[in-house]
Amino acid sequence: MTLLQVCLVIHLAGLALMAGTIVTEYIVYQILSTRFERQGFASDGLADLAARFPAILGIGAGALILSGIGLFILTQGAFGHQLWFQVKILLIVALVLNEFLVGRKYERKLKDAITANKSDQVKSAAIGLRRFSLIQAMLFLIIIILAVFKF
């Protein structure tokens, strides 16, 4: 029983880390694009902070995946056949695909635009990243609702 609770705590911590990082991403990209638009250059501190997000998200994802597998094993797959759990897994796959197909593309565009000092491209990439972050946050919210209410 204690191992189950430890896995649950790690699972929730990973979720909080990932969701918090996504909200932080949204705010940082908003500030970054606004400052670039007003001042004509990106703050090195904000750009450095934004560059660290993938590592933080990776740590949270690792904690979620490992603890999720642990929870699944400890509960002997009790939730695996339930619709809410299957939808949750599909949303997790959507999160990962969105990160790799959309998020990484916009991160590269932003980095290239900052390096080239192109204000219109920085703004465009930052808008894309904010939109991406909102979608990720909404997916996380739906996953949390599913896990809590277990429809």
Account of the 3D structure:
With 151 residues, this protein is mainly alpha-helical. It has four helices and no strands. The protein is elongated and about 55 Å long.
Category by helix and strand content = mainly alpha
Terminal Cα separation, in Å? 25 Å
Shape: elongated
Largest sheet: none
What is the average per-residue confidence, as pLDDT, rounded to a whole number? 90
Helix fraction by DSSP (H/I, runs of at least 4): over 70%
Total DSSP E strands = 0
Order of helices and strands: HHHH
What is the overall number of helices?
4
Q: Beta-strand level of the residues, as a percent range? A: under 5%
What is the rounded Rg?
18 Å
Low-pLDDT windows of residues:
none
Topology:
Blueprint: H1 2-39, H2 44-74, H3 83-116, H4 119-149
Helix pairs in contact: 1-2, 1-4, 3-4
What is this structure, in a nutshell?
The chain is mainly α and 151 residues long. 89% of the residues lie in helices and 0% in strands. The mean pLDDT is 90.
Characteristic terms for this protein:
4 helices, 89% helix, mainly alpha
